[in-house]
Design goal:
By secondary structure, this protein is an alpha/beta fold. It has 25 helices and nine strands. Strand 3 and strand 4 form a beta hairpin. The two termini are about 20 Å apart. The N terminus is likely disordered.
Length: about 750
């Protein structure tokens, strides 16, 4: 026969010290709506298919009839049921979280409120929702634990249920039972095959090792005669580490006749006592044994999670304190001035630190702040100028044309200086645009940095932040103007004065020497060869006849050019094809860049036979000789001359040499101008400008006006912080000895 301890009312609850602490924690954390899984407290999730007897099991555990019933789906929202054991002389009542302070002593009213609250959320149809209904039941007949009643699993939509109702319910159940803090109460009716149990199947997904699952076999009294569930209860069919418990539910007839829970428990006890098979496994049978087993494993689970829970609460507490600190206090009217002043000072310090690379919260994920300005100077500005070709947008044809235009109506006797001056100014002027772009890029970086200063501190004062951004933006733009002006002056100075005396400038002598070497090395042509189609137009045109060669040499000699063997090699190449000797280097720049010497002998072109030759040609002509009209557009290629290759080479060398000098000066001067007029000027004057514009008593109230969103976030943060502080205090109040005693009782049970 069974002992009297089978009665639920005579069972002494385990965890009498620990469970009240957990209940307080649950109450405290529920006030902030904390859904973080790290702070979820242990509970028991009741799962099973529809009509498996879930509601009957829960009502039997509570000892009162309070759950909605019916043939269709009744549980459409999770019901979080917190059972709290009270003294034997205490009243039984229930409280809903959404109705704080209202006690329900009539449990039929609790059923009505569950139905009404469900319909308020999901309506009168059969839809489901994962929003919990929280109910506390205070009774001397319950054991401390927390359960959640989940909707019964279904396979076929009924009525106006959505087509994916099965998926919705399964996902809802899995969201609970997959959590480590959750024990699973898997309910299966005895008149169905255990291998096909929906409850055990979904529990196996969340808890494959069966460490958190307790099996419940309901409706043992309606099994076929001659059969029993002994092997099921002993775990021989589908083993579970926490075991099985068999129960007998109230029949539909009992419910319709309003047969109470107490009568049902007595009837269940009589059934197991009189059954020869179940009497031998009494520890696995009956609601009282189920309550005892649940209480045992629930307390054990709580104790195992308390250390981790303490650590999580303290970690969350630190984060909440930091968040509240970021919002800061609401400044009182008397302290608004000092608050504004301190904010402006802190902003200026943060901006300067960001530019100088002294920011305390230094990032390691990306380059930011003043380092980006250095990147603009070196990797963008300087590198781009280094890559720029000195002759970009300037072709050899342009240079030749400039040389021809500089000679006017005369033949060129030397390399003109004017093309070099004009062309080098044109190339220097092209450095202005990238220099101005560099200033603009630095300005943009400073604007970005201004937006990243005191972001958290100013987040709650949107108008204050807007005004600061506006003033800083205008101030930076004002600093951009003088820096751009200075850059313009730097380039204009270089354009206005071409210093050919610069020590690094190649100079005329060296340029001519290099040009002669270039001509000798790359442009020697056979004296009898004619220019072929597609030949280099810059090639030195050699003498087409001895008469032409002698004429060219005579012209150079007549104008004071040294008539040694080297000069003759540049003007024309001897008919025997000999190469130019080393003596060609004796062609000096003085003779190349000056006009004809006054003492040089003039060429006499007034010979006595001139008139005779003209008369002779007129007599021989059979008609008048007509000249071609000059072209509307004349290209330098049509005016090819012998000395052009040397002139072109000399001019290009002079251009490249001087352009390189100026480019290096620009690369050094432009960053200095930007740093002086824009960056450093902003660092020096920013605080002063902000105080002048914003430190005004008539602006304080407007500047420190918070948004509703920030006020709400601060309020929520303070509530969270308060709740976590209280939760931490509750855990600290739990004596270590009490927890040790509970573990000892659990170990010996």
């Amino acid at each position: 026969m069974r002992n009297d301890n089978h009665r639920q009312t005579s069972v002494t609850p385990l965890g009498s010290t620990v469970i009240p602490v957990v209940n307080k924690l649950r109450e405290v954390l529920s006030t902030i709506g904390e859904r973080d899984t790290e702070l979820q407290l242990p509970l028991v999730a009741v799962v099973g298919s529809q009509s498996s007897g879930k509601s009957s099991v829960l009502e039997a555990l509570v000892g009162r009839d309070f759950l909605p019933r019916g043939s269709d789906i009744c549980t459409r929202r999770p019901l979080l049921l917190q059972l709290i054991h009270t003294d034997s002389n205490s009243d039984e009542y229930g409280e809903f979280l959404h109705l704080p302070g209202h006690k329900f002593f009539n449990f039929s009213q609790i059923r009505s409120e569950i139905q009404d609250e469900t319909e308020r959320e999901v309506g009168g149809n059969r839809r489901v929702s994962n929003k919990e209904i929280c109910l506390k039941v205070y009774s001397p007949r319950v054991l401390d634990m927390t359960l959640v009643d989940l909707p019964g699993m279904t396979k076929v939509p009924v009525g106006d249920q959505p087509l994916d109702i099965e998926t919705q319910i399964r996902n809802m159940i899995l969201s609970y039972i997959k959590q480590r803090h959750c024990l699973i109460l898997a309910i299966t009716p005895a008149n169905s095959d255990l291998a096909n149990s929906d409850a055990l199947q979904i529990a196996g997904i969340a808890d494959p090792n069966g460490n958190r699952t307790i099996g419940v076999i309901t409706k043992l009294d309606i099994m076929d005669r001659g059969t029993d569930a002994r092997n099921l209860l002993l775990g021989k069919t589908i083993p579970l580490r926490l075991g099985y418990v068999g129960v007998v539910n109230r029949s539909q007839e009992d419910i319709e006749l309003n047969r109470g829970i107490r009568d049902a428990l007595e009837s269940e006890k009589a059934f197991f006592d009189s059954h020869p098979v179940y009497n031998s496994v009494a520890e696995c049978c009956g609601i009282p044994q189920l309550a005892k087993k649940l209480n045992h494993y629930f307390v054990k689970h709580v104790l195992s999670m308390l250390p981790e829970l303490k650590s999580s609460i303290r970690s969350k507490l630190a984060l909440a304190a930091k968040e509240r600190s970021s919002y800061g206090p609401v400044p009182q009217e008397a302290k608004q001035g000092s608050f504004v002043l301190n904010t402006l000072l802190n902003y200026s310090k943060a901006f300067v630190a960001l530019v100088d690379g002294r920011n305390e919260e230094m990032l390691t994920s990306e380059v930011y702040g003043g380092a980006r300005i250095h990147h603009i100077f070196q990797s963008i500005f300087v590198s781009r100028l280094e890559e720029t070709d000195p002759f970009e947008s300037l072709t050899d044809e342009d240079i030749r044309t400039a040389i021809h235009n500089a000679t006017g109506p005369r033949s060129a006797l030397f390399v003109p200086e004017v093309p070099f001056q004009v062309l080098v100014r044109r190339q220097i002027a092209r450095l202005l645009d990238p220099s101005l772009q560099c200033a603009r890029l630095v300005y943009n970086e400073l604007v970005k940095m201004s937006h990243n200063c005191l972001v958290h501190e100013l987040q709650r004062f949107p108008y204050f932040k807007t005004r600061i951004n506006e003033i800083v933006g205008n101030f930076l733009f004002e600093g951009l103007e003088p820096s751009q002006t200075m850059i313009g002056h730097i380039v204009e100075m270089e354009v206005d004065y071409i210093n050919t005396s610069h020590p690094n400038f190649i100079g005329g002598n060296k340029a001519v020497e290099n040009a002669l070497h270039q001509v000798r090395s790359h442009r020697l042509v056979s004296p009898l060869a004619r220019p072929r189609d597609g030949a280099d137009p810059d090639a030195l045109v050699v003498s087409r006849s001895n008469h032409r060669s002698n004429g060219v040499m005579a012209r150079y000699q007549a104008n004071g050019i040294v008539a040694d063997e080297g000069v003759r090699s540049v003007a024309t190449i001897e008919s025997n094809g000999s190469s130019v000797g080393e003596r060609g280097s004796s062609w000096r720049i003085s003779s190349f860049f000056r006009g004809r010497d006054a003492n040089s002998p003039a060429i006499d072109v007034s010979g006595s036979n001139v008139d005779d030759e003209i008369f002779y040609h007129r007599e021989q002509a059979s008609s008048i000789i007509h000249l071609r009209e000059p072209p509307l557009t004349l290209n330098s290629s049509e005016m090819h001359s012998e000395y052009e290759a040397v002139a072109l080479a000399v001019t290009k060398q002079l251009l490249e040499s001087y352009y390189t000098i100026v480019r290096k000066k620009i690369q050094d001067s432009v960053p200095k101008a930007i740093m002086h007029f824009l960056v450093n000027h902003t660092k020096r004057e920013l605080c002063k400008v902000l105080i002048e514009h914003l430190y005004r008593p008539n602006l304080f109230k407007e500047l420190l006006q918070e948004t509703d969103e920030v006020s709400l976030k601060r309020k929520q943060c303070e509530e969270t912080l308060t709740a976590l502080q209280e939760a931490s205090h509750i855990l600290d109040e739990l004596p270590v000895e009490a927890a040790t005693v509970e573990r000892g009782r659990l170990g010996g049970s």
